Amino acid sequence: MQRTVDELIDVPHRHLVLTIAEELREVFFGNRSLLKVMMDCATKTALEVLQSQKSEAIPGILAVVHTFGRDLKFNPHVHLLMTEGGLRGGQWEPIPFLPYALLRKKWQYHLLTEVKGRWAKSREDSRFIDRLFKENGEGFYVNGESQMTSSRYAARYIGRYIARPALAEHKITGYDGQGVTFWYESHEEKRRVYRRLEAREFIERLIDHIPLKGFKMVRHYGLYARRSKGIALEILSKCGNFLQKSFAFLSSPAKVLGWRQRLMQTFGQDPLRCPRCGEEMELWRIWHPRYGDLFDLGRDSPGVELFDEQNSANGKTQGFLEGSRWASQLSLFPV
After folding, report:
1. Cβ pair 197, 180 in contact under 8 A
2. For residue 229, is pLDDT > 70?
3. In this model, does residue 157 exceed pLDDT 50?
4. CA–CA distance, 167 with 161 (Å, rounded to integer)
5. DSSP assignment of 150-188, as one string?
6. pLDDT tens digits, residue range 120-137?
7. Looking at the predicted structure, is the pLDDT value of residue 88 above 50?
């Protein structure tokens, strides 16, 4: 996820959410390979609508597919993060406002056409798809109100969707031995809704959202596609300062930060630096109030006994854990 957000171009982005008809969800539930078709059709839709506005600019598009709704039901939809601009003839061209009425109709057309060609095996299947065309005259719903003026904000925003689970743990409020209670924010009722499911059904719903082995839930298109980076690099060498700054990630590979660097970047403090003496600490114990010691350096680290014996021979009777640089202890919960 960190590598993905680090590769965002430093320009404004727009977040689009493309949904499908409720009757179509069962088709995708039984044919998970169609989820890739959803992502391709969503991107094709965005590019065609862009071209309809007489723009030939190539944007960067990041597609994320989700199969879950807020109530854990199977509800596949696509999140698109698209740059509000693109490359055209070596120049950066702003993208005009996208007409959502056209987005909806083209999204419906491309998706239903592809599903009909790949899934429909009988006359009944074809009639089912034709009926969805007729019953959704305005197309499938598309939400595109979220606009992000900087890549940093866009990275934080889309990062939530890339790593988002079907249900956050903090939304689970109870388990009575028979059922699980959780809550979600209802769009329709505009309030928090609590739901209780039998434990078996709860687990089944979570399992329904596990992707097929090897399936990519995040895909890159346009300027973000791997095959496009070489072309973008060639253009970059001939551009001005604006593009060189915006496309800096192309000329230098994204640096993957470790957990320590990420904490320092987020909170501005080094988690391994002692706030009292300033010495660098090392982790020696992880403690949990229910399970006790999950990790103890004196117990779990190889070679500790020999190191401790050497310290004892030098007169350090309490062993090496006494030193300030070994005084880091992690408690998972406040004592």
Report:
1. yes
2. no
3. yes
4. 12
5. SHHHHHHHHHHHHS--SS-GGGEEEE-SSEEEEEEEETT
6. 999 999 999 999 999 999
7. yes
Token digits of residue 42: 């969503």
Residues in the chain, overall count? 335
- The pair of structure tokens assigned to 109 is 């057309």
For 55, the token pair is 């723009």
Joined tokens for residue 140: 């499938």
Banded model confidence at residue 165, pLDDT cuts 50, 70, 90: confident
Check whether residue 65 and residue 123 sit in a common domain. yes
Domain identity same for 70 and 180: no
Residues 299, 308: contact at Cβ < 8 Å?
A: no
Instruction: Spell out the residues 6+ positions from residue 233 whose beta carbon is closer than 8 angstroms to its own.
Output: 250, 251
Q: Which residues contact 196 (CB under 8 A, 6 or more apart)?
A: 179, 180, 181
The structure's pTM equals 0.69
**Do the Cβ atoms of 65 and 39 come closer than 8 Å?**
yes
Asked if residue 177 and residue 159 are part of one domain, the reply reads no
Which residue, 227, 182, 251, 322, is CA-closest to 9?
251
Structure tokens at 297: 């350096």
SS3 36: helix
Asked if residue 31 and residue 178 are part of one domain, the reply reads no
